[in-house]
Amino acid sequence: MKAPIHKNIESQVRTVTIQELKAPHFDPNWHFHPHYQLFTVLEGTGKRLIGDSVQTFGPGDTVFLGPDVPHLWRSDAAYFDTGSSLLTHGVVLYFQEDFLGKDFLDKPEMLALKQLLLDSKRGIEYKGELRSHIRSELMSIMHSEGFQTIIQLLTLLDKLAHETGGSPISSYGYVNTYKVSETERMHKVHNYVLQHFSQEIRLGDVASLAGMTEAAFCRYFKARSNKTFIDFVNEIRIGHACKLLLEDKWTIAQIAYDSGFDSLSNFNRNFKRYIGHTPREYKGNY
């Protein structure tokens, strides 16, 4: 299997690379790269893994990531079904810190932009009017050429650096401790959990997949992910449950079992722990 880190990002003719993504599903490989990345989802739903954060995503999801932040937008299982008519659609923009030269950010006028780029190393999620502006600008940049592309990107980054509307994604102090050689191992683990979270997940099976003993895998996962493996699985399950609660098609008991919990009481307890509300309160609030 090709290592997920090796992605075709660089352009031979553009300093800033922007791509429109249309496919049956988003790239299912967990990976990281040395580029800044501004990404917006126009169509598609699933689970979003960024740093040590696990969330669901849908149309409108807009994120700015710094270099080497591990990430994955994993489309829901239905997008991988044979014969599925579902499609995903997104726009992604890549650039490197020195895209205007090595000393550009050292200028006094670049202080706010330098702070924005520093904040992006935790990942930044945008909502509200600022999110709408980013999406509009990305669509515009996609049809720009030459110097106009640079001007539009700098204007957008300046707006992001001076306006509120962005929230950090990963926890404070998060640092990627993975090596490039580990991407395939963690991809296997993430892929297994995302495919089987609605069923019983045995620690021994996952540890074997990673080529480790159970104890060694637990230590490894917590050191790299800043959370226990059980917490990771529960966050995936709770995120799925949140999505089903908002769809308002099933009872809370049905959602609990569909999300992989073995009892309604266990589901309610974990939901309150991770979300801060009971499932019924969450459904009522939204």
From TrEMBL:
Per the UniProt record, one Pfam family is Cupin_2
Any single GO molecular-function term of the entry would be: DNA-binding transcription factor activity
Q: What SMART domains does the database record attribute to this sequence?
A: HTH_ARAC (SM00342)
**Swiss-Prot/TrEMBL keywords:** DNA-binding, Transcription, Transcription regulation
Highest taxon listed in the record's lineage:
Bacteria
Boundaries of each HTH araC/xylS-type domain copy? 187-285
Which Gene3D superfamilies does the record match to this protein? Homeodomain-like, Jelly Rolls
What name goes with this protein? Answer: AraC-type DNA-binding protein
Native source organism of the sequence: Dyadobacter psychrophilus
